[in-house]
Amino acid sequence: MTAAPAHAADEVLLGFARALRAAGVNVTADRERTYLEAVEAVGADDQSAAYWAGRATLCASPADLERYDQVYAAWFGLERAGTRRRRDSTHTVAQASLDTGSGSTDGQESPEDEVRAQASAVEVLRHRDVATLSSAERARLAAMFAALRPRAPRRPAHRLTPARRGVVDARKTLREQLRRMGEPGPIAWRHKGTRARRVVLLVDVSGSMSAYADALLRLAHTYAATGLPVEVFTLGTRLTHVTRPLRQRDPERALVACGESVPDWSGGTRLAEGIRAFLDRWGRRGMARGAVVVVFSDGWERGAPEALGEQMRRLKALAHRVVWVNPHRGKPGYLPVQQGIVAALPHVDDFVAGHSMAAFEELVEVVGRA
């Protein structure tokens, strides 16, 4: 495994390598380590050399080069990969390069200051509301999803497996004794292990959620592309199963394929009807049983709120845990007064925010601990 970053510059470099991996480039831990060593050898203060060091160590084929340039430009905020942007005196730190030298002369920003500014800019972006971002900021945010490490919650397995300690496996122990013609032999042990629990994501793509739909589906892709037992549906005027298109490794291709599958983008909201369709067709047949179900919605409901409350009650009866993610939950002064939210909350185990990268990171932890 890659060693922990020694300083802020390594954190930025590793973040870029992980963004490349999310974009479909086969970046292994060995390549990450070689990349850090190569940048250290050429000097991160030489942006052009650092750029070519990345191309030489992180790209495995000519097909990776275009993606490398795209992710490089998005991650470091540069107009053209491999070129040094002129530093304007009014904003020298917002688009800082990966310099790691020391000292400054003639009033210019030192390399350490630039690295700290880059890390600070990333930290600020993590807490920004997705709905308020510019196109360039959205591109940088998209690359940051590669740093997320979703994990499925665990549940007890039904079968016992061999172990060094636990419960005596009487049959296996006896067979070993017989094989030894009655002579004493080692005692066989076994224990009950754990298995990954299914995670189901229900993403509201109605008009009131349109500003957050892209980020939420990128989060869903991050889950689906891991190979975990994850299922993804969109909710609008109808329910759409989008797990298959989101399984693609390239996030951009996955989102395009998902968009082609969903016929009701930015339409009305029929949460109760969508959840009912999920339960009747998939949930009661086993998909929701014992699963962690995550609903992404602001709670605006076209139908009667009582109907939504009834469907949430049914969902809660089947699922291991129900998490409701509201993009307005993390905003100052928000109160859950929408009729849909009021009807759903009695049947929700966790009510969390979903408006920023920091909120998504917290959600990953909530789901993993469920």
Keywords:
370 residues; alpha/beta; six-stranded mixed β-sheet; three-stranded antiparallel β-sheet; 9 strands; flat; disordered N terminus
Quick overview:
This protein has 370 residues and is an alpha/beta fold. It contains 14 helices and nine strands. It has helices at residues 8-22, 29-42, 47-58, 63-76, 111-127, 135-144, 170-179, 210-224, 243-246, 251-261, 271-287, 305-318, 339-344, 357-369, and strands at 154-163, 167-168, 189-196, 199-204, 230-235, 239-241, 292-296, 321-326, 350-353.
Notes on the structure:
The protein is of the alpha/beta class. The chain contains 14 helices and nine strands. The strands form two sheets. It has a six-stranded mixed beta sheet with strand order 6-5-4-7-8-9. A three-stranded antiparallel beta sheet has the order 1-3-2, with no helix packed on it. The longest helix is centred in the N-terminal third of the chain and has 17 residues, at 111-127.
Shape: flat
Number of strands: 9
Structural class call reads: alpha/beta
Q: How would a textbook summarize the main sheet?
A: 6 strands, mixed
Element-by-element helix/strand order = HHHHHHEEHEEHEEHHHEHEHEH
User: What level of helicity do the residues show?
Assistant: 40-55%
Indicate the radius of gyration in whole angstroms: 25 Å
Mean pLDDT: 83
Gap between N and C termini: 27 Å
Which strand-content bin applies to the residues? 5-15%
Cross-sheet strand order for the largest sheet: 6-5-4-7-8-9
Low-confidence stretches: 1-6, 79-105
Task: Please tally the helical runs, counting DSSP H or I stretches of 4 or more residues.
Answer: 14
